[in-house]
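Following the same procedure, the fold was encoded as tokens, giving this record:
***
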Amino acid sequence: IEELNLGMGLGSQRAAIANEELIDTYSIVREYTNSLVIGNLGAVNFIKDGWNEEIIDKAVEMIDADAIAIHFNPLQEAIQPEGDVDFKGMEILRNIISSYKNSHKNIPFIAKQVGEGFSKEDAEIIDNFGFDAIDVGGSGGTSWAAVELYRIKDEEFKELAENFINWGIPTAASIFEVRSVFDKTLIATGGIRNGIDIAKSIAIGADCCGIALPILKAALKSPEEVVKVLERLIKELKIAMFLTGCDSIEKLKKAAENPANHKYPSYVGLLSFREAVAQFYKKRFNVTLNPTSEI
């Protein structure tokens, strides 16, 4: 992370908020990087546990955070045996965020999903709460329903939870939904696996991407492997940009907005290929197609 000047987001800091003996397991991140570090707190805890500006400040100071993510995880909470499902009254976040910025630090606040994606309507509410960015966290990556499935002992409830493994708005769809009403920073996460995924996400509306699984797999091997994977992702992104004629991220972001790119290619393909397709349709479906005008 430090070597490539990239940022990273931490997991939920709830454990260290509840037990100060665990603070070192989070603050250690600053022994290894001076780059962007994003803290993480759960939205439901501001309702259930009465968290306020002081809790946010504790989380920020713990890791010298550059930004703080507030994660929304209703599906995970619903499936957890000990889950908290009271998400009513989330409008209190508006005052808490505003108060924290005025009385403590004016750092960015990120609304973060964790695998279910945000809809257009969600984004409008989040914007009204005063968040500076949205991490769509769409389905397609880690399924917390699947993770919780391994913790559930009751077989009947386990079968119920299994039906929600693929629940959620896919990442690409969530990007479209959120970007249609939200003009601030948009982070794409959820199933991003390579540089081409990053390029696609940026082209349809994201400002940047977050990746977990490929990095965690590499981290199990060595720090050097992490750098190797990150460098590969960056190279893949650059190649995708080169192949689409985009020499900057800004041009990549504008590419999908250009109506000239919303069309089929001008060429029709080799006649021999079109004839082969016509033969296939005739043999397989008994359908006759004109290779010069219908393919």
In short: The longest strand covers residues 37-42. Residues 41 and 280 are 56 Å apart (CA to CA). The chain has a mean pLDDT of 93.
